[in-house]
Amino acid sequence: MAELRLTNALKFKRLDIIFFLFVSDLVFGKIHYSMREEMEPGAFVGNVAEDLALNIRRLSARKFRLLYANKRQCLEVNLETGILFASERIDREELCGQLPACVLSFEIVVEEPLEMYRGEVEILDINDNSPSFPESTILLQMAETMAPGSRFPLESALDPDMGTNTVTAYNISPNEHFGLKVETAEDGTQTVELLLEKPLDREQQSSFQLMLTATDGGSPSRSGTARILITVLDSNDNAPAFNNKVYKVSLMENSRRGTLVVSVHATDPDEGPNAEVTYSFSNRVSQKVQELFSLDPRTGEIRVQGILDYEEGNSYSVDVQAVDNGSPAIAGHSKVLIKVIDVNDNDPEIFLTSVASTVPEDAAPGTVTGLINVIDRDSGQNGQVYCGIPKNVPFKLQTSSSGHYKLVTSDLLDRETTPLYNIHILARDSGSPPLSTNKSIQISVSDVNDNAPRFARPMDTVYVMENSAPGASIFTVTAFDPDLDQNSYVTYSFTENLILDFPLSSYLNVNSKNGTIYALRSFDYEQVKNFQIQVQARDAGVPPLSSSATLNVIILDQNDNAPIIVSPSAQSGSAAVEIVPQSAAQGYLVTKIIATDSDSGQNARLSYRIVQSSDPTLFTVASNSGEIRTTRSMLEQDGTTHSLVISVRDNGQPTLSSTATIFFSILANVSEQISESSNLVSTPGYSFDLNLYLIAAFGSTSFIFLVTILLLVGVKCKQDRDSVSRSWSPVCCCRRRNSKDAFSRAHAPAGTLNYSGTGQNIPFPETYHYSVCLSPESSKSDFLFLKPCNPHLSQGQC
Fold first, then answer.
1. Class at the top of the CATH hierarchy for domain 349-446
2. Which of 303, 308, 363, 477 makes a 20 to 30 Å CA pair with 273?
3. Is 478 left (phi over 0), alpha (psi -120 to 50) or beta?
4. CATH fold of 129-234, please?
């Protein structure tokens, strides 16, 4: 619509642009447009963007907006074209009344960067109102005695238009008795009087009907009419006359009701009732003036009856009339000019043109956070305003122009210390006494990522029981970040590390949200006893900040390993075989159970006991050392073979145990211990190998040969026992036989045992020994016969 009226609107457009540059980051300017009233909505006023050299494409992005000084918003700007247009039909008379100049003031604010401009549009008057008289019929009564030249005031026509569009001429319908006399007063108002040009003769004509026409100076001109009905009377031929044609007074705007403004006085040279005068306001006095002032009809005193406000009206023109009581009544007219004097009765007003609700905490000192406009409707010194804020806030006010201030930061901000500022703005005028106004604004400090997460304990110790179930929570780390929102959103992760040459991520996992650490697999105390990990806490700021904590993880031992019996060893799952000489005395050390436990502490403390025995009275085992000894001497009736089931139990909770079965062969006077190799059986994995048959044949032959020898030795010993014992003294060749020697030669390097599956070298337990002596039968045989030495005899004695 604005484009359609562009051609006609340009005819009436007058553009004046004045720019003022005050500071580097805020520009103030002033633009002036003119437009005619009563233009259609959408009428073109001016191109604001072009006149202010603004980029049209960025008007919306820069939050282009108009701010009006009054509540009436008659203008708008098209943000796509930058054209200022009328948003409604503007009636100058409705908007500005009788003010000589009708101006719509507004301010233009754009941001990024922040700029402000002042603008005003002058509403030009058009001749859209016809003159009108207060009354359509004017009634006049005239005495026939009135001399030619007598004048009768008439009510002036009213035209709300201004300038040349208001009433400029009056004329009356043609007649031979009357004419018009128009005079212009000092204030520009016109008075119209009916002039008697020719004496009246009531007997010839008792009444007249005339048409009074008021014409304005518009193009085309407009006119209004009123009928004048004149009645010719006899007598009272003098009108009252005021002492002063114009009364001028001054009045303070805070004058109380009833205050005397002025007393008008009129006199009438007539006598009697024709000289009695009554005062009143003329019909030209507006309703508002009649509400502010009262006129005593008898005394002519004008008093204040309303509330005067200099800011609403600083002067008033009041027409008064004095009407006598003659018949017909005659009126005299006068004018009272009242000037209102300003007093300091208006508080300063604070307008927040643009205030940022939030400011980033890293804003540099001098950052503009708001624009403030302060006005005082009083004039002169009463309207001079000082504006300030407290000094205990990191903000200050900078004057940009008269009544305009910038609110800028004066120091560094820290949201973690002070997240919100209540700034009290004080505006005080220079009147006497001064008046002031306070206004508070809240500015929040927005967060930036300037704090790294902090762990409550940067170093901590975590205890984890071995064999814990995978997925179990073992610990929770917590880091606090005093920032806000995503700047305080903390995620947790591991700093990559190795555990037993494997990545940490294969053992542990951390919940990135709550810092709970989970075990992905069970830990084995026998493999790893402790290790260190680092947990990193990282926030979600840009750029992100992080910190780390060190956790010392200690694995607690659990009784998860049963004792392992190392010696005597069973061959291929068979029971171990031990040879005991028949001559073994009470307390004879038969063998010793050697066992190990991979656990530690109480879990590796072992105890030994017999759980099953073929002869409970024959053998005993030491609960702590595992030594198996005879509880008595061997008897003839004792069998040649015995069996023991030994239980090895640890001290853990719950207790774990292992058992070993040992077969004992009771032999009389053997030369040396039969090697355990005779009991070896081929492993199942080679059951189909040819060697199996060879080993079986060899073993069978050896066993038959051994049994034969034992039988022969037994018979021989029985025959020669007595003779030998009398004729030959035995020689004891006692030697200590270390059970470790035989075991070491058969199974492992000297000094250590390597148990498959444990990954550990097990030291030998303490050695044990037994003593043998050369038997007398040795001197009569090709064989060397041995028998146990009595431990209580000295060396060389058996």
1. mainly beta
2. 303
3. beta
4. Immunoglobulin-like (2.60.40)
